[in-house]
Amino acid sequence: MRRTARWAIACWAMAACSASAALLPSRTQVDRWLAPLGANDRFDARKGIDWGVMPGPFYTPELSFGVGVALVGLYRPTGTGAQTQNSTLALSGYAGLRGAFGLTFRNDTFLADDHWRLFVDGALSHTPTWDWGAGFRAGENNHNKQQYTARTIALRPDLFWRVTRHGWLGAGAAYASRHASQRHNRQRGSLTRERDGLAVQDVGVSLSLRRDTRDWIANPQRGGLLALRYTRFMPPIGSDTRYTRLDGRFVRYHALDDSNVLAWEINGVFTQGEVPWSSQPSLGNDRHLRGYYDGRYRDRNTLSSQLEWRRRLAWRHGVVAWVGGGTMAAHPQGLNGSRWLPSVGAGYRFAFKPRMNVRLDYGIGKASSGFYFQVGEAF
Prior knowledge:
Blueprint: H1 2-23, H2 27-34, E1 49-60, E2 64-75, E3 87-96, E4 101-111, E5 116-131, H3 136-139, E6 146-162, E7 167-181, E8 199-212, E9 223-233, E10 243-255, E11 260-273, E12 282-283, E13 297-298, E14 301-312, E15 317-329, E16 341-353, E17 356-365, E18 368-375
Antiparallel strand pairs: 1-2, 2-3, 3-4, 4-5, 5-6, 6-7, 7-8, 8-9, 9-10, 10-11, 11-14, 12-13, 14-15, 15-16, 16-17, 17-18
């Protein structure tokens, strides 16, 4: 009798699963629904810019719940052969329940059969956020944090010239305007405590050196990158203060097989001079140390690393998992003995253009976590 009951339950469960599977749309149906959005696995150079759009929800420590839209265009400049990787234009717009909204964009253009590269990053945002101050002790003290609204405009173009097979020399500029308004908790201090004022403008020029062996910049599976960028901010060209910033990055990608990739990154930012409070590098954002409130842990120098496993599944699907850590200090020599913040997490990937993914990541940090909806890989 018991055996008969078990068989009946098993048959009922299998029937329920079969019925559920029958109700789910097939891959062909999903491809058909996504076709009007341009989300296909083919690139059509005849369109000029082959666009694809993908909406999605998100939750981050800074923005709370919200909705984002990712718009990605693939194109090939005139005179560039098919052997050169596609140029990309990625735009992400978002709006959060706390009143945050913004637009970010990234344009990677490969010119003259990849003898020249033009990379442009930009952002426009209006974000209710918090200021903790600089250092670990300030970041962990919630009693002294102050709420304000950050209005930011940022633009960074970089032009690279191939000097060897894998070597690149670059020159660029950096512009950022940040304004803090609608302050709260003023009795606990002022955002002007670092004498920079509530409005800060950074204008700088930069030089870059790169060794780049990545097989595909938008979604690498093999090779690596060693990059150094030195930026000098000066009042004669429009900056409010005078300081320097050195960005260093080392990345390696190892394809274990056709479906699995290990990616490893070390990222460091080092500043000297009159660094405004709003321009100090921070630990925690949608690319480095995912899971932390962006701007909570910041200082004049930061160092972070992460190891990520990426697995491509059937059809358009993929998954990732990572572990990482980061530290910071007022002086570079202080990074040796500083504390480290951990970061672990996992994510889902959906391929909607050739070698171009939409990612949904969930990162966990020390007493904080967050979801991230973005275009392209974190690194």
